[in-house]
Backbone:
């Protein structure tokens, strides 16, 4: 496969294939940044893939007290699903179980102004068993739910945006340590406004393909063509010579441009951190509405 | 250009200023506004006889300037836009307003944001900020919205309040929250609640933090101590639903006078 070279990194002439998704941005605040982070980690746990988790979610960024609605430290999280109802269900479940339960937190909408919304406090208020109360503040309704600590404050509803899910880079190097170091550097460079990297540490080692060779019921199975241990066992391996390990970074973004620029940052960071090979996963271009050719990412960010 | 009405001289009698709201002045030029008539005692007076008129009603903001203590009903029943008052004003300001913002850089008279006699509800939406003191029965009959007073609110604040919030950073007078159903009364200084209220707890109310920050946005001076401090929550009126509350700043000696 032709392509180009960045330093010592071979970049394949291929593209990442991604899909339209719906998403919400929540801003979780707390008395300390540590508690806000606890809630955000809990809320975005087990949210790596819509296939197995019904949603994809990750911490977007820390939000300084000067930026939050209540002046306390906060964490912005992004949650993606295939449709608005899916986002609404997952947000409700996860705020109810992971944010409301966490000491000192409050939960606010980070996508104000979006035309489409889903209820949050409007549904969660029933946990208050009739003792809940609302306040309209600057034109927005918030719910006060009495809890053992005091009150949990949550916004009435959250805005739903249309984003892009499934952008990706696959980063390889001679061995596991070198490939992981490059992938970690790339993931760190890719995080930012409008970006969610839903896998652990932003990195997935078990990239998948659609369906399975041995089963008609499995929705996904291992990407055997990218497994180095199978290089000598299969005829259609995609593991390049000299590559001993590969890691994938999956990117969900608030916009096509967010995903493209995150991929650009990641590609160049990986190249500078010892990756010998960078490629991307796709489905032949037949399934996803968005294509991100690596050839368009040659210029540094 | 913002429509500005600057008082020429003290009027001979009390003036009902309720017609001076942005939605009623929208689209009128200065001369048309000057020709409007207001009730002044048993007579009527033209706006132009009472005020210097500059600008036009094209924008959603109206500025009133001068000693307006004889002007009642400023912002009453307003539904949108913003009125900024630079000076003291009379009674019934913001009475039964349903939306918009009324900012008073001075003192306000009695029945701020209240219900007119016989009405089911007073203020049903919008925000009122008073940098000085407010008179008796602020927020009486209030159903929704925010009244935030930088100084002291007089006695009877929140009388028969249905819901909504009255904040008085300089403290609230006697008999606060009599007949209150679901409303919130907030006092920045110590207060002895009526016997119909019972002490619940001391805590940091998260919604109040947002309301105080909003009041600050609208021009009120709000100490950081109030935003970060502890408040005592009293529930009442127990002769009603016991769903109302009085929040009293309770952070040691920091703000006691």
Residues:
């Amino acid at each position: 496969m032709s392509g180009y070279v960045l330093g010592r990194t071979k970049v394949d002439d291929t593209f990442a294939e991604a899909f339209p998704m719906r998403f919400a941005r929540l801003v979780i605040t707390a008395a300390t940044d540590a508690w806000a982070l606890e809630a955000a980690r809990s809320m975005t746990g087990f949210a790596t893939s819509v296939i197995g988790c019904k949603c994809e979610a990750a911490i977007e960024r820390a939000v300084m007290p000067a930026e939050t609605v209540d002046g306390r430290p906060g964490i912005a999280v992004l949650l993606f699903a295939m449709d608005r109802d899916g986002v609404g269900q997952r947000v409700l479940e996860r705020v109810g179980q992971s944010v409301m339960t966490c000491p000192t937190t409050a939960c606010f909408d980070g996508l104000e102004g979006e035309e489409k919304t889903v209820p949050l406090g409007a549904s969660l208020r029933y946990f208050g068993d009739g003792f809940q109360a609302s306040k309209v503040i600057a034109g927005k309704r918030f719910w006060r739910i009495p809890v053992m600590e005091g009150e949990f404050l949550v916004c009435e509803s959250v805005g739903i945006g249309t984003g892009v899910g499934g952008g990706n880079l696959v980063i390889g190097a001679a061995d596991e340590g070198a490939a992981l170091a490059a992938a970690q550097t790339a993931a760190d460079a890719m995080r930012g406004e409008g970006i969610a990297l839903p896998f652990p540490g932003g990195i997935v080692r078990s990239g998948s393909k659609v369906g399975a060779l041995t089963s008609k019921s499995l929705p996904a199975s291992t990407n055997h063509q990218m497994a180095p241990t199978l290089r000598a066992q299969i005829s259609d391996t995609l593991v390049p010579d000299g590559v001993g390990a590969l890691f994938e970074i999956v990117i969900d973004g608030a916009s096509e441009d967010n995903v493209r620029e995150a991929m650009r940052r990641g590609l160049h960071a990986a190249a500078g951190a010892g990756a010998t090979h960078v490629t991307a996963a796709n489905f032949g271009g037949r399934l996803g509405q968005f294509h991100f050719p690596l050839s368009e990412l040659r210029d540094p960010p | 250009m913002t429509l500005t009405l600057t008082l020429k001289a003290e009027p001979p009698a009390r003036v009902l200023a309720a017609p001076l709201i942005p939605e009623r002045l929208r689209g009128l030029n200065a001369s048309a506004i000057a020709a409007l008539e207001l009730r002044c005692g048993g007579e009527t007076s033209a706006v132009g006889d009472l005020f210097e008129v500059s600008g036009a009603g094209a924008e959603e903001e109206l500025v009133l300037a001068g000693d307006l203590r004889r002007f009642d009903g400023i912002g009453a029943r307003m539904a949108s836009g913003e009125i900024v008052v630079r000076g003291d004003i009379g009674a019934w300001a913001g009475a039964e307003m349903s939306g918009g913002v009324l900012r008073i850089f001075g003192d306000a008279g009695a029945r701020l944001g209240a219900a007119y006699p016989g009405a089911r509800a007073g203020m049903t939406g919008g925000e009122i900020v008073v940098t000085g003191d407010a008179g008796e029965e602020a927020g009486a009959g209030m159903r929704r919205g925010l009244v935030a007073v930088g100084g002291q609110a007089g006695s009877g604040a929140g009388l028969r309040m249905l819901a909504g919030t009255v904040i008085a950073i300089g403290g609230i007078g006697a008999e606060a929250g009599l007949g209150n159903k679901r409303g919130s009364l907030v006092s920045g200084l110590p207060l002895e609640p009526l016997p119909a209220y019972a002490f619940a707890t001391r805590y940091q109310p998260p919604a109040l933090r947002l309301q105080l920050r909003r009041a600050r946005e609208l021009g009120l001076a709000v100490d950081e101590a109030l935003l970060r401090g502890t408040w005592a929550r009293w529930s009442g009126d127990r002769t009603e639903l016991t769903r109302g509350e009085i929040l009293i700043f309770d952070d040691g000696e920091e703000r006691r006078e």
